[in-house]
Amino acid sequence: MATALTRKDFISDQEVRWCPGCGDYAILAQVQRIMPEFGIPREKTVFISGIGCSSRFPYYMNTYGFHTIHGRAPAIATGLKVTRPELDVWVVTGDGDGLSIGGNHLIHALRRNIDFKILLFNNKIYGLTKGQYSPTSEVGKVTKSTPAGSVAGISLRPADVLREAGIGSRRLNRPDRRV
Ligand SMILES: Cc1ncc(C[n+]2csc(CCOP(=O)(O)OP(=O)(O)O)c2C)c(N)n1
Ligand code: SF4
Ligand SMILES: [Mg+2]
User: Fold this and answer.
1) Does pTM top 0.70 for this prediction?
2) pLDDT reading at 2 higher than 80
3) Probe target for ligand 2 pocket from 15, 16, 17, 24, with the most ligand atoms within 8 Å of CB
4) Contact, 102 vs 71, CB < 8 A?
5) Distance 23 CA to ligand 3 centre (A)
6) Which of 46, 47, 61, 142 has the fewest CB atoms within 10 Å, counting from its CB?
């Protein structure tokens, strides 16, 4: 009989390279904690990311994973899921990766309702490239590259994008837990 997996089974041997205090640690810890509850073997689980700090996520999960190209994780996940439907496929993306360069891919993956999960780390900034404003930054965001404030007229809300594409979403933001 197979032994039940625990949180520790999902922790990889890779050094985590996020800044001290980055919120991504909390997401990683929560995902590693809940994975055993799904009862899916690690060899049937795949995390597919684009580019960004958040997209380093697959290195830290002791499962299969791909760190792919900027904004294109949904396309690669689509290919994997339609050819290997028995796999548990997760896309990991950021607000820049998923809603800016990869916005088109994300919307159409949602519209097609491919059976994979999407973890969108929304820190409202391009973290990896040192803080340019993103599609979810507040209107008028002041950054080094927009010293007079961003010119974007609206700030995208990921849940609205999902709703428009016909998909429900659940947020990991829990005011009670600060996650
Ligand atoms: C084709 C291409 N364009 C631009 C970049 C530079 N780039 C790398 S990550 C990134 C934004 C990432 O932002 P986000 O998805 O929010 O990730 P975070 O670092 O905030 O987790 C950009 C613009 C790149 N690597 N490749
Ligand atoms: S730059 Fe920002 S998003 Fe990237 S690891 Fe550091 S705190 Fe996290
Ligand atoms: Mg970001």
Assistant:
1) yes
2) no
3) 24
4) yes
5) 11
6) 142
